[in-house]
Write a structure and sequence with these properties.
The complex is a heterodimer of chains A (146) and B (355). Chain A is built from one helix and ten strands. With 146 residues, chain A is α+β, with helices and mostly antiparallel strands. Chain A has two domains: 34 residues; 101 residues, Rieske [2Fe-2S] iron-sulphur domain (Rieske Iron-sulfur Protein). In chain B, helix 3 packs across helix 11, helix 5 crosses helix 11 and helix 6 runs antiparallel to helix 9. Classes of the chains: A alpha+beta (146), B mainly alpha (355).
């Protein structure tokens, strides 16, 4: 082994060592900044209130696990439950009783009362939930479980 | 007094610094006024630092305490309202002056060789300034800020490949919660000031070493025929005078045009009408509002993010793209590009407030 190649070898060893040392500091810091996964509460059914909480043409936002759900009662009296998070940029939507539409105030997105995106920037319809009435209780269940 | 000066001078060589400052000359021409814009930005940052430190003494991050502590500061603490108002007003003016500073630098072609790095550090400082604004906006934990943060972080989530990761790191989870607030607080008062200070020192050192840039047409005049004033004390004193005016304007704004605290954020409340980000994000907000749900096969949101990312990158690397500027020629293309950008920002911002 020549003197030069020994020096080159030592140079690389030093560089590699420094890089590894640097990485060993950066890696834990980097990993630390990523929040750990919070387990999703496996709630499949929730009571939104009683019939008297929902006069015709009214709405209420409840939370099913981590998902906000908008429960609305149409003017005709039937219920609808939809995911309350706008599919555009994550704002919480609201029910406009006068036009019976769902509106997102952030970027002026509109959905019809069935949750279909009808105007503005929302790219997808709102997620659906089932509504059942048990005695006078309004029960919301996840669609796939109904 | 002279003994104290002598004592420090023997250790820190103050004479050399003063000699350097006296030797440095500032060009006098139609654009000399532009030179004050960077200094005003620096002064506004200093105000931020002082008022920010004062606010930290009472502010309590956390979903249950943040809004209440800001309310406490503005209603119970003596001069608390003044400190908060000055912090908010100088933050907004800081961004405004940084924009003025950036565009005058752009149109004067001051980014050309050998000042490319000054432009790059300046752009990084602007990005950090906007990050300061974005993170600080959430801290009072009011309704407007809550939804602005939801939207802003969701936009980050739309970035291809790294979006999901960015969103979780920003929000400290999947949702905007008290954990997000604590994280934003840490970013706002520790991480950003640390990085900002390093970049600011680099930026200022480059300005000092390279001296003031003059537009290409002034550069063509022989040096002996150009009018100049000494940096110290002439220019520095003018700087101080402008800073004093700025401070007075901020005090007036703080007293007569206070920033509303609004309603406390509620995760279960729908986004209120009239929701909007800080004015300096308005042009982006309005653009996102106008882009349809789908553009060809892409989601509108992604198109918007890509549009701004590409535009931002071009702007960032202008010193390397504008080849003509290096040889002292004004490129029409880049001048029009800058004019388009200014008009775009102004029109979309006004539009955003009108609708």
């Amino acid at each position: 082994m020549t003197k030069q190649s020994r020096r080159t070898f030592l140079d690389w060893l030093l560089r590699g060592g420094l890089t590894a040392w640097f990485a060993s500091i950066i890696y834990p810091v980097f990993k630390y900044m990523i929040p750990p996964d919070a387990p999703e509460l496996n709630i499949s059914q929730i009571e939104a209130g009683t019939l008297s909480d929902f006069p015709k043409g009214s709405s209420k936002i409840i939370r099913m696990g981590r998902t906000p759900v908008i429960v609305l009662r149409k003017k005709k009296g039937d219920f609808k439950a939809l995911e309350a998070t706008c599919t555009h940029l994550d704002c919480t939507v609201q029910f406009k009783t006068d036009t019976e539409q769902i509106w997102c105030a952030c970027h002026n997105g509109f959905y019809d009362v069935e949750g279909r995106n009808i105007s503005g920037p929302p790219p997808r319809p709102l997620g659906q939930f089932n509504v059942t009435l048990k005695d006078d209780k309004v029960i919301i269940t996840k669609k796939d479980l109904a | 007094m002279s003994n104290i000066y002598q004592w420090i001078n023997e250790r820190l060589e103050l004479d050399d610094a003063i000699k350097f400052a006296k030797k440095k000359r500032v060009p006098v021409f139609y654009g000399t006024v532009w030179y004050y814009l960077g200094g005003v930005s620096l002064f506004l940052f200093a105000i931020q630092l002082v008022t920010g430190i004062l606010l930290v003494l009472y502010y309590q991050p956390g979903a249950e305490t943040a809004f209440e502590s800001v309310k406490f500061i503005v209603s119970k603490v003596e001069f608390g309202w003044l400190i908060r108002e000055i912090h908010s007003w100088s933050a907004n003016l800081f961004i405004l002056f940084v924009f003025f500073h950036m565009f005058t630098v752009f149109f004067a072609k001051a980014y050309r060789k050998p000042r490319e790095m000054t432009w790059i550090t300046g752009m990084l400082l602007l990005v950090l300034g906007l990050a300061f604004g974005f993170s600080g906006y959430l801290l009072p934990w009011n309704e407007l800020a809550y939804f602005a943060t939801k939207v802003g972080s969701d936009i980050a989530g739309a970035i291809p490949w790294v979006g999901e990761f960015m969103l979780r790191v920003l929000r400290a989870g999947d949702e905007v919660t008290g954990a997000t607030l604590t994280r934003f607080y840490g970013i706002h008062i520790a991480i950003l000031p640390g990085i900002f200070t390093i970049l600011l020192v680099m930026h200022l050192m480059m300005v000092q070493f390279q001296g003031m840039s003059v537009p290409p047409e002034i550069e063509k005049i022989p040096e002996k025929d150009r009018k100049t004033i000494p940096f110290f004390p002439d220019f520095v004193l003018r700087d101080f005078m402008i800073w004093l005016i700025v401070l007075n304007v901020i005090a007036l704004l703080a007293v007569f045009f206070p920033w509303e605290l609004g309603q406390k954020a509620d995760a279960l409340a729908p986004a209120p009408a009239g929701i909007r980000p800080e004015w300096y994000f308005m042009f982006m907000f309005q653009t996102l509002k106008m882009i349809p749900a789908h553009v060809l096969f892409l989601e509108g949101e992604l198109v918007g993010v890509m549009f701004f990312a590409i535009g931002g990158l071009i702007w960032f690397f202008v010193p390397f793209l504008d080849k003509k500027a290096h040889v002292g020629i004004r490129s029409r293309f880049w001048t029009w590009f800058g004019i388009f950008l200014v008009v775009y920002i102004i029109v979309l911002t006004i539009w955003g407030y009108l609708v």
